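USER:
Before I trust my own judgement here, I would like a peer's view. Write it directly below this note and I will take it from there.

ASSISTANT:
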Amino acid sequence: MARPARYFGLIPAGGVGKRFGGDTPKQYALLGELTVLERSVNAMLADDRVVRVYVVVSKDDTQAERLFEGHPRVQVLKVAGRERANTVLNALQHLLEQFKIDDTDWVLVHDAARPGLSLSALKRLIDEASTHVAGGLLALPVADTLKKVNRTEDGEVVVQQTVPRDSLWAAQTPQMFRAQALALAITECLYKDVQLTDDASAIETMGISPLIVEGHLENMKITHSADLHTVATLLGLEGKLA
């Protein structure tokens, strides 16, 4: 009898967050009493179907191990690469080789700086993407009017054209795919020097269309320091920032 598919969380956390500023990488910034990374990990663990969450950091990172020491469902992997795609691929190869995750298992790749993921959105993603051949990702329909721009010789940014938004969605995470398929897709993209902005884009290069599952506003990514305050407000933690 075939073993049922399992679900594993994978959180790349090897970046330094240059746009965030300051001496502390954004994943270790405090959001209330917990770091951004802890909240992102806890959000992934909220669904009991997620067997384990792997946090992927650089070899000289010691903070993640301290944060999750002794946690039965969290393991820190020190295999982060030069770019996010390299980090995800290194982790996937490690899981496939060392932990016997196979081609029937799903991996949910989640940004370390998205602490606002809700349980309902996570459940919805697992429920719906599990039935789709390619897997899927959380995303939100674009609400704002979009402008394609040019930059003049004087440095001014001017409108070139308005871009129709009817079919545009803003990708979020988690993005859920079969572990082996995602590893093969990223490997191929890196070999061909294809620029990857997320994991779904690697799957798309194989001619496969992932399923879109509607996300939510609170699941925004922290990129700049001001975003920390925005997320704190969305999560009701605005009075608990350091």
In short: The helical segments are 36-45, 63-68, 84-98, 119-129, 179-191, 199-204, 225-234.
